[in-house]
């Protein structure tokens, strides 16, 4: 992490923040997870990395779902879908649709 920070390699840093956020998500530290996801989101707003953005939005949706914040979860699932709809990654689209469906029916 510090190497990417020292080099100011923002694209790599954004992905590292996603991965750190995932670790916190898996260990059920959802607030800490969102902290790193938001750091990544701030970087990705200035980048052209649709894959990372779509994954980040999906992960943020999952995290908000776990925090029992369905409106926020749906917002991020929809953002993820907007990106995946313009790609050929049907597996990831299905993944997001499944999570969105689960949120709508909870």
Fill in the keyword field for this structure.
6 helices, 106 residues
Topology diagram in text:
Elements: H1 2-7, H2 10-26, H3 30-44, H4 50-66, H5 70-85, H6 90-104
Structural class based on helices, strands and sheet pairing: mainly alpha
- Major beta-sheet overview: none
Instruction: Spell out the helices and strands N to C.
Output: HHHHHH
Give the overall form: globular
What is the compact description of this entry?
The protein is built from 6 helices and no strands. The protein has helices at residues 2-7, 10-26, 30-44, 50-66, 70-85, 90-104.
Task: Write up this protein.
The chain is an all-alpha fold. Helices cover 81% and strands 0% of the residues. It has helices spanning 2-7, 10-26, 30-44, 50-66, 70-85, 90-104.
């Amino acid at each position: 992490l510090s190497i990417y920070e020292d080099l100011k390699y923002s694209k790599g840093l954004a992905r590292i923040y996603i991965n750190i956020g995932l670790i916190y998500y898996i260990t059920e530290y959802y607030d800490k997870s969102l902290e790193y996801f938001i750091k990544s989101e701030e970087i990705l707003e200035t980048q052209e990395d649709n894959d990372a953005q779509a994954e980040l939005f999906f992960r943020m949706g999952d995290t908000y779902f776990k925090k029992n914040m369905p409106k926020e979860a749906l917002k991020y699932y929809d953002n993820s879908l907007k990106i995946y709809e313009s790609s050929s990654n049907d597996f990831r689209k299905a993944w997001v649709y499944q999570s969105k469906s689960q949120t709508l029916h909870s």
